Amino acid sequence: MSAPPPVTTPPHSEPSAAARYLVVFVVGLVVGIVLIVVLLRALEGRKTWQDRYPAALMQLYMAQSAQLSADLEANRCAATDTLARLQTLRALSNDLEPAFADLRDHAGFASHASRMRGTLDAALASPPNDCAGLRRTIDAIGEACSGCHQDMRG
């Protein structure tokens, strides 16, 4: 009986220094990204409703205006279709000064807020009954918004 041939294993080579540095770099990059995300979420979590109020109000304005435009495109222009949106926009208009507390005493801002409420009051006093009237109402609301944005942002 002959002895089985010895099993040879290939020589075990050490990883190169470049490979080790690459692994450390990738791990550091992943840990750094995770820590940045945690930090940003912590900072975002510290915001109160007052910090989010202006952006939320403008988002609601845009959503209601978009719904009015969608009603116009869908040829749903009767007062029964648009009145709820106009009432919501008018209710939101009451919050313009509280939402933008730093602009509350600014004469231009107060004028634009008053103009927006006046535009919506006129639309509610005589709601549009057809698509042409709804188009005029949407345009008037858009002009009131644009005027304020141009003066206050610019």
From TrEMBL:
Q: Which InterPro entries match?
A: Cyt_c/b562, Cyt_c_II
Residue ranges crossing the lipid bilayer per the database entry: 20-43
Please give one Gene Ontology molecular function term for this protein: electron transfer activity
Q: Does the keyword Membrane apply?
A: yes
Keywords from the named record? Membrane, Transmembrane, Transmembrane helix
The domain of life for this entry's organism is Bacteria
Alphabetically, which GO biological process terms does the record hold? electron transport chain
* Protein name as it appears in the record: Cytochrome c
**Source organism (scientific name):** Luteimonas terrae
